[in-house]
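Tokens for DUF1365 domain-containing protein. Go.
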Amino acid sequence: MHSQSSLLVAQVMHQRLRPVLHRFIYPVFFVRINLAHTHLLNNFIFGVNRWRPLSLFFKDYGPRDGSNLLLWIQDLLKNQGLALDGHVFLQTFPRIFGYAFNPINLWYCHNRQGELVAVLAEVNNTFGEHHLYLLRNEDGSAIRKESTLLSTKMMHVSPFCEVKGSYRFSFADSAQSSQVNIDYDDTEGVLINTAINARKQALSRGNLLLALLRQPLLGLGVVWRIHWQALLLWRKQVPFFHQAAAPASKLTVSHTESKERTK
């Protein structure tokens, strides 16, 4: 595990299996920021808590009050019995010309040995709600590429899915690449597969500028694509569900141990 922040040039795949097959793939890019090094990242193209063509503002994450995110995540994990003594990385879409919508932010939490011990999945919906899913092995062991972490679905995300069932998360990281798989199971089994496959690059001014030039409308495009895909599902007559009430608690902790995927 490297301590440097990085740019992730990625593809997002989303596939619905029932009642009709519906699949799409979109190119995107993320930044993955070492929260201990945010003061080192400001330049003419990228800024932390300041306006730049690409930017990241603390008030968009975690407690949403602009406070120190590293202290916040350390305190959250401590309250769940995890003493965090390694690097924490926040993976997110940056604001582009001041705007971003993030369906999911991923907080990668490591121990002193550089092992991944927890991931906080911060899920946002288009209704302004957000929910935190803390993913960890119940025995405290490191999260490996073979690990499957389960969490009960708690928040309304799509009008074409009920707030039932559970998510299955898996993570595979190397110095050159990153892979995230999120499967959603309802009461009948697997309903949706989502995968984020990315190539890691240095978070340099040149790489950031190139990413911006290739996808200058990514921020608006994320929201447009969500609504476009919703229209396609509606045209395919996929059942529609009204928005469910938000859960009382903002945090859900994964409830199963690591297990190897069936081969």
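The longest strand covers residues 189-202.
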